[in-house]
Write a structure and sequence with these properties.
Immunoglobulin-like, 4-stranded antiparallel β-sheet, single chain, about 220 residues, alpha+beta
Length: about 220
Amino acid sequence: MVKNIFFLVFSILMVSACAANKGTSISGKIEGASKMSVYLDKMKGGNNSEILLTAETGQDGTFEFKIPEGLKKGIYRLRIGAQLVDILSNGSEKKVVVNGSLSQLNNFEYTVTGSPLTEEYTQKVQDYINKKMDVPSLQKYTGETADPMIGYQIANRLFTVRPEFIDLHNKVSSRYLTAYPEQETAQFYQQVVGQLAQSIKCKVQQQNSGRTTRS
């Protein structure tokens, strides 16, 4: 009887411990965001997203999301009014903390702890904004040395999908899809980059055809 009770208690403790290990919290304090709605979105590709959770900040701008099953690998976004905070997850985060001022979030003037990919991504963008990193250096980092998820987010947010950056986007897309083939953002990005490459090819063909006709 005592042995059965011991095993029952042990099992309950093990289940509780596993649940605690799997969970993730995202919390913080946003100055100037008293009693405002905060949304946690899962990015799907481009500007497409899915709202996962909603919360309301306290009088002092504090908020918290609890995700019992844990944050899965992927790109997320905190939305407060028209301001955004990118969160890049490798799936290991337990406690993510975001602090900043509401009016400066879109300028990347905030801090994030507890999410290694987000911390590195935010730091690199801040370095670029503060002119500690020039465009060639940022391109090299984005296409060659950054974690492919970070590379994608920088290419998507800072360089955007424009013809003059097609070589960078091809490189970033290939690395991202190879490292994270299950990510919808990687699959969507591959399609967008492919369409851009095809558009450039058609434009070149039209230009060449025009020259041939004139000659």
